[in-house]
Structures are given as structure tokens and as C-alpha cells.
Amino acid sequence: MLERPLNRTAVKEFVLLGFASIPNSQGLLFALFLAIYMVTLAGNGIIITLTSTDPNLDTPMYYFLRNLSVIDICYISSTVPQLLVHFLSHTHTISMLACATQNYAFFAFGVTECFLLAVMSYDRYVAICNPLHYTLVMNHLACAKLAAGSWVGGFIHSVVLTVYTFHVPFCGPNHIDHFFCEAPQVLKLACADTYVNELVIFSVAVLVLIIPLSLVFVSYSHILATILHMSTAAGRRKTFSTCASHLTVVSLFYGAAIFMYMRPRSTHSPQQDKMISLFYAVITPMVNPMIYSLRNKEVKGAMRAWLPNTLRN
Q: Which SUPFAM superfamilies does the protein's record reference (predicted)?
């Protein structure tokens, strides 16, 4: 990036343009995003409740699913509440500190989800390919360590990503053509060369996207080989059905994130970036509990048992 003149006033706040290009639909968009947010909170809240209270769901797979639901609630909460406020406000400003905090939270929960999805694929690998040792390998302590490692890894990597996003001078303009403070759009406003910053962010993206995705690929390669060696078609279908939900979630989340952070900057456009970000930052947290509940007999059974008790109370 060419350097901009440095004799301009340092930026202390940004303006999030969001969906200002469709000004006559702000009320409708507010209602839409509020509905999405409430559905996300309700869906993931139900998953957390079911996996915490139903003894039939007291297994490593559902322990990790509960962590995923907590992450998804935090993930969407890092962006949508701010967006809802801006729909109702005439000013769409956000301070530099608030912008950096939002960026940190967004990265932290997003990277944590990357790691956790890889852990969940390892859990399925052990359950299907090494079932006799499953309870020994995936004991309570091991599950807690794997989950904690995902959270700690996500929050540590987010420090690096946030520092390299905001450790540049901003001296105008200060309009971010996005609905939240996402790194590529923020760096476009820097008035200094951001080559090193972009290189670091790209390198971290490789680390937190490609390496976990490779672990998912290796796990499912072994799972597929095991399924193909099963003697009955019914056994193959039943075993694969336990992985289908996770594979769907992995495809949705990793696909959109890789497209966003691992393509050349010259191919980025604000409108396209907004749509991609909307998909993995807002839509994916909403549909994850639906994917896991609609395709899972154990979750549906727990929900059928839980709903009457809830309604009676």
C-alpha cells in the first residue's frame, strides 16, 4: 500500500457503514438481524441445556458440542449487538478501543471454533476407528484439556491478529465499509505500508485454518476407510450419520473463512466481503444447532423429553 500523508489528524474513532447502501430498509434489517440473533441464542441455549442436563448426552461428543454452542453465542455476540444499535442510531461511530476489542473478540471466538472443530473430528476418529479404547482415550480429563487448549489457543492467536491489525497509524479516512471491525477492511484505512501486517495475518490464517482442516481431513480419511470395511450397509449408514452433522458444519465454517482470509487482497470487494462475513459470522452460528439437532436422534430424543417438562414448569 502506498503511504498516505502523515500530517493529518490521527483517527480516534471509525464509522461503520454497515448496510447504509440500502437506507430505506434499516427497520426491516433491524428486525431480521434481531430475529437471527434471538434464534441463535435460543438454539444454542437449548443445546447447552440438553447436553448439560440429559444423562444420555453425557459423552465426549456432546461435551464438545456444548463448547461449540457457547462459542457460537459469544461469536455472534461480538458483532450483531453493535450492528443492531447502529440500525437504530443516526451515528454509526465506534471508538478505536471498541473497534480493537470487537476485532479481538471476533478473532478469539472464531479461531477457538477452528481448533474445536478439529478436536471434534479427532473425537469421531477415536470413537469409530478405535472404539474399544474410546472411553480410555477420551476420558474426562483428556476432553477438558482438548477443550481448554482450543480456547487458550484461540485467545492467544487473537492477540497476534489484533496487534497486527491495529499497530499501524490511522490518519483518515475513517469509514469502514463493513458491519463490524474486520481486519482486512480496517487495514485498508492505514496511512502506512501494511505489507508486513497483512503477511502476518495471512500466515496466522494458514496456521489456524489449514492445519486444523488438515487434521479434520486425516481423521475423516481414516473414518471413511473404516466405514468402507464394515460388513453391513446399515452399519455404514449408522456410523456415517454420526459424522454427517460435523462434516456439514466444518464445510460451512472453514469454506467461508478460507475464502475470506486466504485469497489475494486484490480480489477483495467491500460488498463481497460483507456477504462472506455475514455467512460465517452470523448465519453459521444460527444454523449449527439446527444441523446437529435435525440429524441427531439422541438430541431429538432429549428435546422431546425436555420440552414437556419445561412447559409444565
A: Family A G protein-coupled receptor-like
